[in-house]
Each structure stands twice: as C-alpha cells, then as structure tokens.
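If you are new to this repository, start here. Below is one unmodified record pulled from the training split, so you can see the exact layout before writing a loader.
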Amino acid sequence: MESSVIQAVTSSFQGFKGIALFTPGGDLVYCIDSQKQAHWHIHLCEMLQHWLGLQELPHFLVTCYAATVDRTVDPVTGQVQQVAEASPLVMQYQPLLNAVFGTAGLIWHPTPLRREVCDPMILSAYRREFPQIWECHDLILRYDQSTFRDSEHPPAQVGLKPVAQEVKTQGYVLRLFVAGHSTVTERILQKLYHLLEQVLDQPYSLKVIDVAQRPEQAELDQITATPTLVRVWPQPVRRIVGNLENVEQLLGLLNLIEE
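And here is the target side for that same chain:
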C-alpha cells in the first residue's frame, strides 16, 4: 500500500488554473480547475460565507486577498509554463500556495493593490461588517468543483456545514508546527497536502504554524521540536515529531491503518 500512496503523492498536476482566497485572519479556501473554464471566485466566497456564518458574501477578498496560478503544459514538448500572481497582502503565504497547488519553488508576483477597495480605512469598515474573517479558524479548505458540476451558481449550503459542527461530528483538524518557511518546509507541505487529498474521504483543515511567530500556540500544544504534525481532532490528540516522510506513520496518525 505504501508504494501506491507514494506514487499518488508524487504525481503532479498537468495544465490547470488555481484560485485561492485568504482571509485577513489567515484562513484559506482554494480551487483547482483542470479545465480552466471558470474563475470560481464567487464559489469560494460562498464557501467562506457558509463555513464562517457570514451574512453576506465577502466580495472584497477577491480584490484584496486573492492569488491565482495558471499552469500550461505544451503537449508536444512537455514544457511547463506557470504564471502566478498574488495580492501584496498575501505574498507571505507563497510556501503555502506552492504546497496546495503543487508548484514547488514557484515565485509569485504581486498584483497591483486597488487602494479604493483595499485601503486600511476601508478594510476597517469590512472588519466591522465581517468580524469572523479577521479571526483564525485553522481552515485550509479545497472547493470541489465536481460537487456543483451542473450548476452555474451553486448554492452556498450544498454539501457544506458550519465549521463548529463539522469539527464536532466528522473530519480532521491538523496542525503542522514548523520553524520558518524554508524549502524543506515547502516540500513537507506539498507531500502532506497531496497525501491528504488522496487518502481522506472527509473534510479536513491543516494549519501551518511557525513557532517563531506563534510561540504561545507552540507552548499550548507542547511543541518541543519541529517539524511536528498534531492531530487535534478526532480525539485523542496524536502527533508525529521530526520525520514526516514515513507514509505508514502518517496513515496511522489518520487512523487509516493499524500502526
């Protein structure tokens, strides 16, 4: 089983368009469109609206907190061309973006920031309207476009549940503690995300925490070394410290095989 999982994890996407929306609090929703037929921004807003219980769609995130990558593969030469752009407000998340989109080492270029929408004074008004978005919910969610294949404007509530209910009933809550965002960290993230997408049939959230920037969270979770992967839910709490290359150990953490 291990060899088949490794093969699935190391396989890369062909041509695709990736769209990501961050919240000011650090949560992420994203979509991978292999057909390049839609923008998906509205659906990502709807996903956030439902999971966070927002009264309206947070359209301003598309302008201020979005990132897109367009990957094209020449069918004759096999040459890969990638164009990646991100708002200046989310440039700090480049390693995370490369991990979820499988674009290791890709340099993201900042897009012009529209001051008439993303000015700090204007964002403060959005903060009063959408206080949940400025909180961190440890969310990294992939929008499954196949769920709404036959709907041009899918309803926000189809197939989705509020995060509080989801955590209590099903799914996984994982935290990865790292020391800085190095190439090693990026490689670990990419392999981990591909594994989770391949083997899990339940929703999950994976939050990456830099112990240098969040020492209080590291202390709360009793982190003594990095990298450390913690399964917060389902209970009981379990963790892997140091080596995250062992696929069988990772599957054991997820309760998918007997260790």
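Two things worth knowing about this chain: The chain has a mean pLDDT of 77. The CA atoms of residues 22 and 28 lie 5 Å apart.
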